[in-house]
Amino acid sequence: MTAGPEPADYALAPGVLSRRVDEEMVLLDMSSEQYYSLDGVGTDIVMRITSQPMVRALAELTRDYDVDADVLRTDVEQLIAELRDAGLLQHVHRDS
Amino acid sequence: MTPPTPVLAAACGIRVARRGAPAAPVDADLKVGVVHEVAIPTGPSLDARSPEGESWRRLWSLPDRLVLEFVNLVAIEVADRDGTVVFDRMLPPDTEDHLLLDHVLPLWLARRGHIVLHGGVLVRDGRAVVVTGHSGAGKSTLTAFLGERDWSIGGDDAAVVRREPPLTVEATYATVRLTPDAVGLLGMAADVGVAVAGKRRIDPPPTDAQHGPVALSAVARINPVGGSSTAGFERVRGAAALNLLLSNTFHVDLGPGAHLAGLLEGLAQVVESAVVGELSVPRGREGLAAVDSVLTDVLAS
User: Fold this and answer.
1) I want to staple B174 with a disulfide (CB 3.0 to 4.6 A). Which of A7, B112, B166, B209 is the partner?
2) How far does B261 lie from chain A, in Å, by closest CA?
């Protein structure tokens, strides 16, 4: 039996619409009627952390952007915090 | 003065029957019905606000009808069942016509899932530019000015974008409404056209009016600038372009559901297929003439 892909640690919050346009992403929070946009790097980060476990996403981003792992982790955590504060992103809780 | 036609042919094959239009054999999609009370919903509304933040129009998109309340003016209900448009009071004919065609029609089209941009449609060589912008930015003035040159006018207020590739656009209906100042700027007689809600409505000659969908090449948001400034077009891409379109689109619902998701997807397709940007329009006839060259270059790009 083949195991499925590991679930991601983060997901867009319910009621948030997203669409990639060129290299960027727009996020529309239907509850607050607020519109947000992410540049290319932000888009790449969100795409990765919402499609795979955080550990793997960080490893891939560190490799692809050729930056210090700690610096990248700090930047990613800052972006996550901003998106969570805005109600756009949520941590996915799973039963252990 | 020629009275307005009882039934108007609008975009997407829609027929709009004005008050008093014969009941048969017309089978209109939207038809003004008898005046009667309109129940104002108690739930949250989607409000249009003035620059000062005051709500001037409230909108409710309900399962079976659309309700609009123009604050201190009139309430209107549009039934999904048969397209009957009910005003809760009699209004001067030109005011009712303006609300019916310039508010109810585009919002009703948006409710049916169409992408409706707030802008005029200008066509040259089979390609269209939608000129959009806030009220008073000069969409109608620019549209009328260029309509006197080598451009065909589709309309000046609302444009329906069809998403089937290639993207096409069609004005909701063929007309231009000009302020008295714009009429003077364009050298027209003060009593040109028909008076409608403080403006003059001018229907383009059939030979000039571009009816039916035309390939959409560009969307340009008007930014009025001083007369000494230079006309120009600055392309906008990505999220900024999508935001430009979203803020110049008629929409009836910001809640969860298929409508907003479809709108976002459709506008993204416009960004990916057409040129979107900011159009600097200097004040005065010379400025308008300069914009003619700018938009010609945009179409050619």
Assistant:
1) B209
2) 7
Q: Are strands B168-171 and B214-225 parallel, antiparallel or unpaired?
A: antiparallel
| B255 contacts A37? CB cut-off 8 A | no
ipTM, interface predicted TM-score of the complex: 0.79
Could you tell me the pTM of the whole model? 0.89
Collapsing DSSP to helix, strand or coil, A11 comes out as strand
Residue-wise pLDDT tens digits, B221-237: 999 998 889 999 999 99
Paired tokens of B280: 């600097």
β-strand partners of B282? B225
Phi, psi of B64 (to 5 degrees): -120, 0
Structure tokens at B281: 């329009």
Q: Which residues contact B170 (CB under 8 A, 6 or more apart)?
A: B11, B12, B121, B154, B159, B160, B162, B211, B212, B213, B214
Residue B165's Cβ-count burial label (10 Å; 0-12, 13-18, 19+) is exposed
Q: Give the pLDDT score at B29.
A: 93
Under an 8 A CB cutoff, do A17 and B240 touch? Answer: no
Q: Say which of A24, A30, A37 has its CB closest to residue B254.
A: A30
Q: Using the structure block, give the residue that is written with the tokens 């982790």.
A: A73
Q: At what angle do helices A40-49 and A69-85 cross, to 10 degrees?
A: 90
Integer Rg of chain A from CA: 14
Percent helix, percent strand, percent coil in chain A, to nearest 5: 40, 25, 35
Residues B15 and B264: their CA atoms lie apart, in Å, by 27
pLDDT tens, residue by residue, A30-48: 877 788 999 999 999 999 9
Residue B277 banded pLDDT, cuts 50, 70, 90: very high
Contact: A19, B240; criterion CB under 8 Å: no
